[in-house]
């Protein structure tokens, strides 16, 4: 039973041209070539995709949920990054 | 297309797809890994779709599938061979999908009656061929056991491969040209899989012919018995 | 992400000097998220019992999908028309796919698929008892689609809002894909019911055999259900067993009428006051017996599954060996 545990891969699918790849799920495959093919069969058999990425799950570095505050909260108090922060006189167009 | 459907050719290609689809369907619930359940079913469904189009060119798809006797089927003997172990199934896939890919590629470029079907099917079959190639590489160049199983499977099915290059009435392809392209393609895959092309004859010694002449191997009769029994038990019923 | 092994120990919290107090803080955050109907995600802190409950439930669900392939695959080679054959193959294929989605969801909780399959093969984890009944005729394929998938959908739709994100997302995908499963079963039965007398009888016989086991799919009555209360509190489960069972009965009665088939329950009648159908007593002895392993197909199902897995071992080994030889991102990295 040794070495039959195929590694896990994360699958990202571009559902149509013009959109980004989004995470669809994961699967097991012995290598990248089969991961792509398994992803095609598993995640796009109803025509859900035009392009697929597969990434070994072990290669992903994720932010820790416990860093939630230091990681993401500072972004919440910078409203000047959003267009709605700015007041523009009525009637000014194309802005 | 309604004017000149070459019946013999449509039945030959349609029966190939129908019978291989059936054999692949037998894997459901038995595949070596779950991902492969999905892959084999995809291939089986593509083939079944092709079979339905082709048989419908000749007549009613269900009458043709369910009410013909064994001797009336025109598929090559290769596709009716029992699944065996996974290596046998992959060897059968490699041999047949390479043939089908070369054939449909030629049919798709012409303006014959099969061109529209072939143009769609050639994409499906390219994937089947790739699937077979990927597995041939892994089984051939995997472990000692898988290498030996794959070698035996390639040998065992070899004598059914010659039939694919027989001329078929209504199919405008050069059989010998097809054979040499096929040998080159299969040979290359086997070489990369650390295997070699088997050396024996590519057909059995029976002058009466083989599947294209309606002469099949013994397991085929039992396959048809299973496939047809329910339909035949209720004559005239619709489902 | 599903690389879950390390997540359990990932407690690098804002340090408050006291491990217990830190856990209490996490627990408050977890409770608040569940209360606010937010999703719990894989790397979030969660109570061990919540994790264990989810692993058990998702694994059981995944096992049910793949064992559930067997009774229907039993008819692929005998499907009576090419159209039906294509539909059935696509459906059984979907079940394999759904099993895979669910195993992935379970893996986000730190339990690998091999471990879960091991538990299935050794009988330490269960699958839905409904698949321990045999498919004796072609009509059984229809009855499974209509009743078994119907019951499953009734159970599953609320799971799309389950508090655990990966499970909820898998269920959204599954429910979307399953909508055709139930309809094809209904259509199949309708064709039989309106067909020859023999076909009609075949359909009625199948419904007679599958009705009661389908009702049992919702699990034991609420007052006997072990895990229900806690699962409801955690919003893993949204409705009680009896509630869902009643909903299913109410849906099925008019559908059976349209089919021209009867349901095998003399006590089935509309209760004006309740606004529901009353139905007869379920034979829970049978339910517990089948669950214990004494159903008509328990042995057969698990034997086939084990055999497929064992006979496939050399194939999986070969692919892993090839990957180790040829690729940097292959099995050696696992």
TrEMBL record, chain A:
Q: Which InterPro entries match?
A: PaaB, PaaB_sf
| Domain of life assignment | Bacteria
Q: Kindly give the Gene3D superfamilies that the UniProt entry links to this protein.
A: Phenylacetic acid degradation B
Q: Which NCBIfam families match?
A: PA_CoA_Oxy2 (TIGR02157)
- Under which name does UniProt file this protein? Phenylacetate-CoA oxygenase subunit PaaB
Species source reads: Streptomyces spinoverrucosus
- Gene this chain is encoded by: paaB
From TrEMBL, chain B:
Coiled-coil boundaries:
none
Which InterPro entries does the protein's record reference?
Answer: Aromatic_CoA_ox/epox, Ferritin-like, Ferritin-like_SF, PaaA_PaaC, PaaC
Q: What's an example GO cellular component term for this entry?
A: cytosol
Going by the entry's taxonomy, the superkingdom of the source organism is recorded as Bacteria
One BP annotation, GO: phenylacetate catabolic process
The cross-references to Pfam families, in alphabetical order and at most eight, read: PaaA_PaaC (PF05138)
**What NCBIfam families would the database entry show?**
PA_CoA_Oxy3
Protein's recorded name? Phenylacetic acid degradation protein
TrEMBL record, chain C:
- Write down the InterPro entries for this protein, in alphabetical order: Aromatic_CoA_ox/epox, Ferritin-like, Ferritin-like_SF, PaaA, PaaA_PaaC
User: Where are the residues of the annotated region Disordered?
Assistant: 1-20
Q: Name one Pfam family in it.
A: PaaA_PaaC
What Gene Ontology cellular-component terms does the record carry? cytosol
Among SUPFAM superfamilies, the record links this protein to: Ferritin-like
Q: Which GO terms describe its biological process?
A: phenylacetate catabolic process
Superkingdom is Bacteria
Q: Name one GO molecular function term.
A: phenylacetyl-CoA 1,2-epoxidase activity
Q: Which residues cross the membrane?
A: none
Check the record and name the PANTHER family matching this protein: 1,2-PHENYLACETYL-COA EPOXIDASE, SUBUNIT A, PHENYLACETIC ACID DEGRADATION PROTEIN PAA
Q: Kindly provide the name given to this protein in its UniProt entry.
A: Phenylacetate-CoA oxygenase subunit PaaA
The protein's organism comes out as Streptomyces spinoverrucosus
Q: Which gene encodes it?
A: paaA
